[in-house]
């Protein structure tokens, strides 16, 4: 007859027990030193070995070979293993919890053991006993006969009355560690000749939530489901769990604000019977792992199978954004137990994360821009309105841009500079000003679009999330006090207060380029141009005048081409910078 794995592999000695080393060592020492207590209380989560250790301890107390207890060969040991020992009595308090049952137990306590040295009572789920039953047992547990040992086991010690707890030696069982679960499962699989993937073993250990019995039961079910190899997809299908890749896609949609795809995935998950609580737990775990990888890229704490997905789907977002999602999900998870609909709560949590990543209310945006305008000494209409929308109707310019698309003036490709940091530092020490040619700025303004500026302004509200990001923190910090003057399809012009700030941004664009940063924060690759407040004011005034005179230049077209071109060493620094960035004007103070 087939025997369930958790019964077949129930430990028979302390050496076979997984985890709980502190408890095992204490019980071993108690026997060696002959310091046997009259009552023990075993507390802990289900499947962590409470009953198994109680039986092994009982076997050791009655083993005839005291030096090698439990020997497994003497009559007492064999009777315990067969469940037929007359002096080891197991009682299920869930079904024998009344006063009458306890009084019957008390009546039998006074009789001497029939076979072994001790008469041992193992009372499982003792918290299920009634208050009357506890009170009836109280005096017996306090002063039992010398040959009697009580072992009480419970998953909820808070329901056991304090007067009982105070009369017992209490042992708190911990959840079995993930590594111990994996090791034990691998041993069982080898013994049973079960062909199983390493990732599937890991997932089973995760699903068991620290319970060895649960882990073996899950393995048993997977074995029955699969006729050959057990893969991670088989385990996920049986228990309704998303794959790591699917969770990565879900987070990617969350970060990119793909709300429809995000909600559809959650609805499909519930419709297919997936455990949404488990989904939330797995997402929290992956987010936590991504934060670990931020600080320790070579860590062995994250599974190699998870690293690729985390790096591809999770770590494209700044760490503060991930931390915000993590906090939101942890807060939502605590509310699941009283939620009328877990799906609604989870969807709301994700939507809050999407909305929190967007810009605040429009009134706050305008107020922020207005304050910057006043600080820069620029009149309100020039900044709070789009800088290239200085009249009520710009349809004429838009039409002009469309009609002249083929004749648009093409600006030389923007190349990525190989200028060293040392060179840039020298340039700063020489106090040179790197300024954009004003005619070129006007061309950029003509080619800009109000809608692009609005979208970029919304997306740039996430800039603060990147300040502590290892990869993009430097770029975010340079734009911290910048406001967007204009935006085109692949570029944006920002305004800052001082020449030093503008120079720093333009130098960084030359040195490394903002393309990767804008791809991450805007979702679009863009070049960043910077103007100081004086140049910005002058250019905007010129734009208004030339727009009224209809003498604006044709729109510029910025083509982004990443090239690793090394400038000729004999060229001067000025020549190198002009070669790499033709639109810049370098002016001596």
Automatic annotation (TrEMBL):
Q: What is its EC number?
A: 2.7.7.7
Tell me the ranges covered by the AAA+ ATPase domain, including all copies.
36-181
Q: Which domain of life is it from?
A: Bacteria
Keyword terms, alphabetized: ATP-binding, DNA replication, DNA-directed DNA polymerase, Metal-binding, Nucleotide-binding, Nucleotidyltransferase, Transferase, Zinc
Report the top EC class in one word: transferase
- Alphabetical list of Gene3D superfamilies matching this protein: 1.10.8.60, P-loop containing nucleotide triphosphate hydrolases
GO molecular function terms noted in the UniProt entry:
DNA-directed DNA polymerase activity
Q: Where is this region: Disordered?
A: 367-390
The family database entries (SMART domains) matched by this protein are listed as:
AAA (SM00382)
What reaction does this enzyme carry out catalytically? DNA(n) + a 2'-deoxyribonucleoside 5'-triphosphate = DNA(n+1) + diphosphate
Tell me which PANTHER family the record gives: PROTEIN STICHEL-LIKE 2, REPLICATION FACTOR C / DNA POLYMERASE III GAMMA-TAU SUBUNIT
The entry sums up its family as follows: Belongs to the DnaX/STICHEL family.
Name listed for the protein in its UniProt record: DNA-directed DNA polymerase
> From which organism does this entry originate?
Faecalicoccus acidiformans
